[in-house]
Structures are given as structure tokens and as C-alpha cells.
Design goal:
The chain contains ten helices and seven strands. The chain is an alpha/beta fold. Strand 6, helix 8 and strand 7 form a beta-alpha-beta unit. Helix 1 crosses helix 2. The longest helix has 18 residues. 42% of the residues are buried. The model has no long low-confidence stretch (mean pLDDT 94).
């Protein structure tokens, strides 16, 4: 069987892993220790997509001094490194989907704006040995929605953008795929609703893992 794509790249948070509770818990510990108000998991969801620094910035008051902001960012990173797999779970069917792609000869990668060390840890806990590569934010590579990380991943796994597809759950992922010259399939089970994805120009949207598998040609 000839597959539709040579490679499928996945976002992490809200696409292959439901991470929001661990993110919110660790962030709230850091906010509490500095006397700031906590945020809800729903707020954390809405803040996600542009990396750790932006997540913390959005959770803090606008007038927060830079030195305090840095302290909260570093404390959050340390806490999340320790507690990133307390409540996190793979979305139903995603491990099996990635394994099916691998069995069909399709290369897979996870590309996330989360710090690289955290991405490596989560892959080892939830998807050990399944994707061909995983990567998070690294020095020298601009974060999504810049195309740099996606292009690096494609080069690493030996795939071309024209024969690859990106799967994600936010407007950042849609823009990342566009900037990298590849298509995007959006999923509404993560951190953005179907209505939010449609407003961002998502096309197509896979409402279930089964529908995603069909779009991918499985």
C-alpha cells in the first residue's frame, strides 16, 4: 500500500498528550510561592502554544518586574521537570496511531515549543521508542510558529515538507505548518475548541483519532 505521506509531525501538548493539569499545578505552585493569584486549568489551556516563557508571562500581572518574572519562570521549570507526569495522559488512541504509522513505513516526529528536556522526559514515559525523533525548544532554533524546528525535524528524519503533514491543536500549529510549506490537520480535543480552530482557518479538522487516521491514509 502506498501511503499518503512520507512523514507525520505532531505537536505535543493538547495533541498527543493531555498535559494541562500538570502544567497548571506546577505553575500554580510557582505563582503561590511568589504571592501571585493562581490560574485555572482552563486559563492554562488558553495560555499554551507559544512556549514556557509566554505561558508564565500570561499568568503574571502585566506590571510584574522582570527579575521576579525570571524567578517564577525558573521555579516553574524546575517544578514541572519534577511533576510533569503526575496527571498527564496520552489521548486515547494516539499511541496506537503513531505505531500504525510506523508499521506502514511512515516517519513520525513530535515537535513542541516546550523545553527540550521536558519533551524528552515525556516521550520516554508515554511514547518510548515510538516516534523517530522528538524535540522541544532548543538554542539556535526559533520557536513555532517559525518553521525552523519543523524543518530541522524533517531534515533529521529524512523527509520533505511537500510529502509531510503536521498535526496540532492550536492556531500556532496551523501557522507553523503554513510557514514550513506543509499541510496541517487540526484536532479539537486539545487546548482549542473546534470553533476556535475554524476561526483560525483550520482545514481539515479531525474530530476523532479514527478520523485523523483516515486523513493520514491509514
Amino acid at each position: 500500500m502506498s501511503m499518503k505521506y512520507d512523514a507525520v509531525l505532531f505537536d505535543l501538548d493538547g495533541t498527543v498528550l493531555d498535559t494541562v493539569e500538570d502544567i497548571a499545578d506546577s505553575l500554580n505552585r510557582a505563582l503561590r510561592s511568589h504571592g501571585f493569584a493562581e490560574i485555572s486549568p482552563a486559563q492554562a489551556e488558553s495560555f499554551l502554544g507559544n512556549g514556557t516563557r509566554r505561558l508564565v508571562e500570561l499568568a503574571l500581572p502585566e506590571n510584574c518586574p522582570e527579575d521576579v518574572k525570571e524567578e517564577v519562570i525558573q521555579e516553574y521549570r524546575g517544578l514541572y521537570d519534577r511533576f510533569c507526569h503526575e496527571k498527564t495522559r496520552p489521548y486515547r488512541g494516539m499511541v496506537e496511531l503513531m505505531k500504525a504509522l510506523k508499521a506502514a513505513g511512515v516517519k513520525t516526529a513530535i515537535v513542541s515549543n516546550k523545553p527540550d528536556s521536558m519533551v524528552q522526559t515525556l516521550e520516554q514515559v508515554y511514547y518510548p521508542g515510538v516516534p523517530d525523533m522528538v524535540m522541544g525548544e532548543r538554542d539556535g532554533l526559533a520557536r513555532k510558529p517559525a518553521p525552523d524546528m519543523v524543518r530541522f525535524a524533517l531534515e533529521t528524519i529524512g523527509a520533505e515538507a511537500e510529502r509531510s503533514i503536521y498535526v496540532g491543536d492550536t492556531e500556532v500549529d496551523i501557522l507553523t505548518a503554513k510557514n514550513a510549506g506543509m499541510g496541517c490537520i487540526s484536532v479539537p480535543w486539545g487546548f482549542r475548541s473546534r470553533a476556535q480552530l475554524e476561526k483560525a482557518g483550520a482545514k481539515p479538522i479531525a474530530d476523532s483519532v479514527e478520523e485523523l487516521a483516515r486523513y493520514l491514509g491509514l
